[in-house]
Amino acid sequence: MWKVQALVVHILLMGSVLSTYFQPTILPNLEPQKTMRDLGFKPPADRLVVFLTDGLRAATFLARNGSDVPDLRDIFRKQGRIGISRTCAPTKTRPGHIAIFGGFYEDPTAALVNFRYNPSNFDTVFNRSRNTIGWAHRNVVKIFIRLPHGGAPMRFKSYMEAELPEKLTCDKWTFEKVQKFFKKGANVREFRNLKSVVFFVYLGDMDIAAHRFKPLSKRFHKKLQYTQRGIQTTYELFERVFNDSRTAYLMTSDHGTTNEGSHGGGSTHEVETPLFMWGAGVTREVVDSEA
Ligand SMILES: [Zn+2]
Fold first, then answer.
1. Fewer C-beta within 10 Å: the chain N or C terminus?
2. What pLDDT does 113 receive?
3. How many whole angstroms from 205 Cα to the centroid of ligand 1?
4. CA of 213 to the centre of ligand 1 (A)
């Protein structure tokens, strides 16, 4: 009999822990705040470009004073600010993206179970901008596409790896799609006239390369070179298209990776991600004298 009683007590204790910890983290009935434009001020930027390198950890980005990302280091020598952003376990693509663009940590049950659909509705910076366009893996697009949008649907171009002609060419796909988009005069004209635009440039290769080759390998390093150069080239493209010093840039990751190429846990390598901001509205007092 005592065994049954012990089991019941354990079930009750376990249930109380789970019901305390697995609570929804979304606060209900929040009122949207006024923007700078609503208040009559000119915001420091008209558009934001987000380069999201899936699975790139801060340790790789910052290694040897940025020598492994030389083209991005060149940008930083002239402008911008660098830091480390922290995500939290489970360090996966979905919770990482929701934290960055929705501004909250999803509750653990939703993050662990519902990778492919939205268990709850939440607001995002994509929705608030009213003008979002993104290029991303279809699984990432699915996180956002079914959310309420108040009449300004987010526009995404998406792919699945199986549709690409070669392996590990997700970033090539994205860079080429962005270029192609701005080759059309109508697209350039439309976006030059818009304010509060978010461009979402999702780069999936770092995560896949880390799983396949591990972050300290030569093959991973080679892939990193391609991706970081592509970010610089795409930045230059945006500057040419919008030549008005009104574009802000952010480069960050949804989560990091262990030396073994895995993620999901709460270790430093999985949790710490790069945060690099530059462009309109990002000032710093001292510029590198080597620039
Ligand atoms: Zn992964």
1. N
2. 60
3. 10
4. 12
